[in-house]
Amino acid sequence: IFHHVAIFPEKNWPKTITLIEPLIIEGQKMGKSKGKVISLNEIQEKYSADLFRFYISHGADFSVYMDFRKREIDTVKNHLTKFYNFISDKIIKSKNNMGEFKSLKSKYSKVVLSKIYKKFIEAERSLNEFNIRRYLQISFYEIFNIIQDFSQYTEDKNDFLTIFKLIYIDWLKILSLTIPHLCEELWEVSGKNGFISNQIWSDFKKDYIDDEIELEFRYIENVVEDILNIKKLLKTQKMNKIYLYTANKWMYDVLDIIKLQKDNFDLIIADLKKDQNLMRKKQLIPYVKTQLKERIWEKEIVEVEEIKLLEQFKSYIEKRVKCTIMINSKFDPKKKSHVAKPFKPGLFIDS
């Protein structure tokens, strides 16, 4: 603190100081007699300032002992190396990309952009609350996972480069607090002038955030999760085709009535009797009773245009589950279309 005050003008003095519990090494207290001491010079030579700052910042938290473990810091080193290689490679590849939102072609691309900017805002909030561990978990690991998944599953590589071009400057800025030297190098690779440490954060682009398409994507992720879970239960790697069946239209109408009348069975039946064609459905009463038993009106239901959405994300689902997807095929040997519910497709795996 004394050095900081001596070097910098008053406007740059620390405004808040936070403390954590003592640092321990490999589960034991530091002590010269035990040979469990790491000097600052040794940290610089062995690990680098950025690696140590990142490791301590992500591992430390209030009321928790920070346990310095060589195995863990080596793992973090690999993460940072992977991050640096990924960003520098994509900066070069996106040189000729204009980075224009209007050029995005797929809905998946807009989902990713929305999710990343939500993460930026959440990370900044964590930083303001001095939750450094959470800030790094979001700004480094969670965003890195999103962009890597996007790179793997998108069909449009130009869309990927556009998304990268739109987000990477803000990404480097928010990470520069913890890994400043690494971010300065990447700032230079990008051809920017000056230093990233002198850049002033602007408000993150909330216009990129779209709750509606994220809600739609949650439905797709639920479908993927159901397929992977069934695949796991079947203990099979070989799948010829996967068949998805959406519910009959009348079930959506009945669901609306149930959500309106909740657990009042008499009022539900009274509303249903207004449509005699509906009352002739053999599945009607069992379906109503099932929905009442599950208290469906209390659950958060992702309401989307299922068929349209499944068609839009068909290639994404196929990449995730590594199999061809058929939507509402007439081929239905196990009558899975009969068990389909609104926003919960029936599923048959042909293996």
From TrEMBL:
Q: Which GO MF terms are attached to this record?
A: ATP binding; leucine-tRNA ligase activity
Please provide the record's keywords in A-Z order: Aminoacyl-tRNA synthetase, ATP-binding, Ligase, Nucleotide-binding, Protein biosynthesis
Domain called Methionyl/Leucyl tRNA synthetase: residue spans: 12-78
Where's the Methionyl/Valyl/Leucyl/Isoleucyl-tRNA synthetase anticodon-binding domain?
A: 110-237
* InterPro entries in UniProt: Leu-tRNA-synth_Ia_arc/euk, M/V/L/I-tRNA-synth_anticd-bd, Methionyl/Leucyl_tRNA_Synth, Rossmann-like_a/b/a_fold, tRNAsynth_Ia_anticodon-bd
Q: Which family does it belong to?
A: Belongs to the class-I aminoacyl-tRNA synthetase family.
Designated name of the protein: Leucine--tRNA ligase
Source organism of the structure: marine sediment metagenome
